[in-house]
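S1.2 Input.
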Amino acid sequence: MNVRRRSSAAALAAIAVIGAAAAPAVAADPSPSSSPSKTAPSGLYGTTDPQYDGVWRQSLALLAQDTAGVIPSSTAVKWLTDQQCANGAFAPFRADPAADCDGKTPIDTNNTAAAVQALWAVGGHGDVVESALGWLKSVQNEDGGWGYSPGTPSDANSTSVVVGALTATETDPEKVVKDGKSPYDALLTFALPCAKDKGAGAFAFQPDKDGKLLPNADATAAGVLGALGEGLVAEAADKAGAASCTDAEKPTREGAAANAAAYLTATLAKDGHLVSALGGSADQPDYGNTADAVVALAAQGGADKAAEPLAWLEKNAAKWAAQSGPAAYAQLIFAAHATGTDPRDFGGTDLVEKLNATGPAPQGVAAKDTASANTDEKSDEKDDDSPFGVWWFVGVCLVFGIGIGFLLSNRNKKQQP
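S1.3 Output.
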């Protein structure tokens, strides 16, 4: 990831925390609420009801701004930090941040891990990040992974987004273990063999009700990044990775990532984009998952490997992003960053300008040659003014019995062939 490393990393590494967790996905594609919020909370990006995706979309927006060299609004950052519960966890949205979280507060691993990545990137909120990491470690499952919410079975997406939070903060996932199992051990249990009738190298989200693993493109994009130790923001690989799927007697996480990238490449070959369907509806382009696939392919095999789906996004994704809001613009910015594409001229659209327009005006833009230093400096200055301070959102609404929510839309899409 390109997020800046903070001097607080040493302190974070020295803190002893417990272990165990729950959540959805790294490359999530949260959709906006069907009913707009009557009054958008001050500091929040987007105007739709934040009940299911407030923290997720805010985290992606701040992380995307930082990635593009923009210094976020201190009000926007404060909104995010104010959402944290006393135990360190984040829920999708807390209408009254002043009220204590209780057993009914729907805290989850995906929102928490996304918030960690965003707040570490903007800097100056080591205490918030440290507390969130401690909670994530305390809810790690015995297989080494995480589910969407505490106590639920591990899934590839949730485990991957937590891996992103760990690596973003310079925490080695291999050293975050429960019963001797690391997050990478958990991810490998979702990797499928290369035979086409057995999954063609994809990742499954998690076993279905019959215990069978089925290939899922959303989980595959998330799994590639998780297996590589990448987060929501990823750099293109320096050299091309393996182009074909190869089974191994003892699979490695790098091998699983290569196999999964081969699956994505083959799946994208037909139309240049991934497809989705909800509730028996006809197949339709899945813009968010395609953007996540671009990041995954570039991280595993270099920018050239993602050229075709990137070109499709540049030609077709502007309208989708305008309808879907800040998280969608952020996903496209991540795709642009991973491939070395200018996010300010993405198929003729200035993604950064569009994202900035969905919330509080940013503090400024870092100078091109000193982006890292300036952003660090500004972040520290922001802290003096306010108390507060990246793939793929999943089945929270189903977990809490409130229906399909923004974060989990991709989890309920039909399994990919």
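S1.4 Remarks. The radius of gyration is 19 Å.
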